[in-house]
Design brief:
Layout: E1 2-6, E2 9-13, E3 18-22, E4 25-29, H1 33-43, H2 55-65, H3 81-92, H4 115-124, H5 136-150, H6 158-176
Antiparallel strand pairs: 1-4, 2-3
């Protein structure tokens, strides 16, 4: 969870011709599947695949990430580029010690990943929906680990296969006390 401190500020409201004081706020943010789902339901596009976001889309995603209640809607007007950088750094954190190596010859999928696709992966792997509140990168790593563990093993090369057969034959010969 990321804690973001927004200092209070005074700004001018051109519509009402008056100065407005926005008190400081503390935002508690969580980059999760739930946040992505909220954002996608508003913007009708994939959060993960559709490239850079506008300032408005970025601020709205921060709004979707906010888990604490009773935040003044004007508080999001206090966001500055340095706040967005902190949020971006937090979003890019792996949040796990687990790593999975890519297999040789494995192609990257061109599938557009939306929140519904991730929910499907969770269902297919028996991952409970409570995990939708985890940091998204941690959840995606769990899904990837499940896929690796449940998927077919990597095929052996011809050389590795021959070495294994040779070792098995040698073990059988030794066990049966024969030469072949």
């Amino acid at each position: 969870m990321l804690k973001l401190e927004l200092p209070g500020s005074e700004c001018y409201n051109e519509t009402d011709n008056e100065f407005l004081y926005i008190p400081g706020q503390t935002l508690m943010l969580e980059h999760s599947l739930l946040s992505v789902s909220k954002w996608e339901s508003k913007w009708h596009r994939s959060f993960l695949n559709d490239g850079p976001k506008t300032w408005e889309e970025t601020v709205d995603y921060i709004r979707c990430m906010t888990v604490n209640k009773n935040i003044d809607s004007n508080a999001y007007n206090l966001l500055r580029p340095e706040h967005v950088k902190k949020v971006t750094d937090y979003i890019n954190e792996p949040m796990t010690a687990t790593t999975v190596k890519n297999r040789r010859g494995q192609r990257l999928s061109k599938e557009i990943v939306t929140s519904e696709v991730i929910y499907y992966w969770m269902t297919a792997n028996g991952i409970p929906f409570e995990c939708e509140k985890w940091h998204l990168n941690r959840l995606l790593m769990l899904i990837r680990v499940c896929s690796e563990k449940n998927g077919p093993g990597q095929k052996m090369s011809q050389r590795e296969n021959m070495q294994q057969m040779h070792a098995l034959n040698a073990a059988r010969k030794a066990k049966m006390h024969t030469r072949g």
